[in-house]
Amino acid sequence: MEAAPDTELLDIGDLDQAEWDEYARAQGWSDGFPLVMPTEAVVERFVATCHGDNEPIPAMSPRRVIPTLQAMAANAVMAGCRPEYFPAVLAAVRAVLTPEYNLHGSLATTHSCAPMLLFNGPIRKTLDINCSSNCFGQGRQANATIGRALQLILLNVGGAKPGVMDRSTQGSPAKYAFCFGENEEESPWEPFHVRRRFAAEDSVVTAMPGEAPHNINDHGSNTGIGILTTIAGTISQVGANTIYCNAPIFIVLGPEHARTLHRDGWTIPDMQQDLYDRSAVHISRVSAENQESYASMDRPMAKDHYHMTPSPEDILMLVAGGPGKHSAYIPPFGFTSACSVRLSHV
Amino acid sequence: MHDGISFEQLGKRAVVVCTEPFEVTVRNIARMLGLPDYPFVMVEHPIGSRTLPEIKTLAETAYAQALPILMEA
Amino acid sequence: MRIVNPAFGHEAPSTERVGANAVDWKHDPIILFSNSKPNAKELLEGVRDKMGAYRATDNIDYIAKDTAAQGAPDGMYDALATKYRAALLAIAD
């Protein structure tokens, strides 16, 4: 890994697209895909969207350098962002630099976690962040490039080079870009950020190092309790970090599942309690060696079961996606929190 | 690795044991924390999935490497 | 053509190595520090057993932090550094 370069501006001569691409790859700046050239003039347009934002940025792990707005904007340009996305990228950087996020651990770990970004509030509409059909997938510029910009910043400013300082055993496709919004319009409950005491009109990003979303298919259940039974069964996993680590998990309900649950009178706290009670792994599913290992950790077993979160409140619930009877859960890197930051310049 | 350097910063000798695939990571962390020549002990990967007799053999390797580091003035 | 260097950043203040004292291998108290990964404890205990051929091991103690993925709790290093002259740490794999 290189020490922090001391030159913020580089004269690279006149390069065409193919030459630029080769140059950028040789510097180690790419995630594998081609990059947009971060010329001084374009970067300045991005930085201008955060004019007056003087809140200091802490040092970024693992290289422990303090990022500049210009360098972060250069990565947003390279990722294919529009200038108006940059305040969202900056808020995402601040979210992953919240100490409780545990950025260093999430990058140095052998676990497959990626920096999940969840957006709430008006910014979803302003930037056209996909909250509906295929919200975790391809096809929308904001989702693809805001998530990618954060990853490029972690690679180039933070120094999280795969196989060197990013030590994930297998990684995950989510590490290219993992960014979506809550489908607040089709949620029967208060938006996620409002339940975290932000105002409804605030734009908020929530970050957590998480695995790629795991699907929860339930076409058969037409009752809330039926859907919760399927969710509890799906998230009760022996191989999840949360069986021995203290961290939240996300349950992302599809709108159709959400409507059924709401129709049957389920509130968020009621669902959290029910899932906490029933998403537990019986000791018979856990190897003897793991039982011994978990016994030395701070996760007591209750009635021969390991619960998947420390408390019901650590089961974080929201609504995203489009038509269809699918939901998802997002298991975390085990030693982390979901960290929310309000966008300051929108 | 942070743990070892935290001890060093408190004026105590600390020897870190790591496995070969993580050598480059350990060296980089040491450099980032301002101790580029920080010595460490390296043993064959893996540790976690080995039998107890195999661990005893690794421990002998680790001991042989740790001794000169700990004795260094 | 000029571009903005996407890897630019200001160096954070670095830490300095405090002059660590040499260890009296045959007598000084030593702490074996595990990050709780599987077999880390067993590896450290194996090293302690080797030491037993040369010295008393009753002042070689063992401690584990809860997890490999986070730093030790506040005050843990200070407490250990007060009591021991040296540490042997397993970060395992």
Q: Secondary-structure blueprint of this entry?
A:
The complex is a heterotrimer of chains A (about 350), B (about 70) and C (about 90).
Chain A: E1 9-11, H1 17-27, H2 40-48, E2 65-67, H3 69-79, H4 86-96, H5 103-108, E3 114-120, H6 123-126, H7 141-156, E4 179-181, H8 192-195, E5 204-210, E6 214-217, H9 224-235, E7 249-253, H10 255-263, H11 268-278, E8 280-282, H12 288-295, E9 305-307, E10 315-319, E11 326-330, E12 339-342
Parallel strand pairs in A: 3-4, 7-10
Antiparallel strand pairs in A: 3-5, 5-12, 6-11, 7-11, 8-9
Helix pairs in contact in A: 2-3, 3-7, 4-7, 9-10, 9-11
Chain B: H1 2-9, E1 13-19, H2 23-32, E2 40-43, H3 52-71
Parallel strand pairs in B: 1-2
Chain C: E1 2-4, E2 9-11, E3 30-34, H1 40-51, E4 60-64, H2 76-83, E5 86-92
Parallel strand pairs in C: 3-4, 3-5
Describe the structure concisely.
The complex is a heterotrimer of chains A (346), B (73) and C (93). Chain A is an alpha+beta fold and 346 residues long.
Please supply descriptive tags for the structure shown above.
heterotrimer, B: about 70 residues, alpha+beta, two-stranded parallel ribbon, 3 helices, globular, C: alpha/beta, about 25% strand
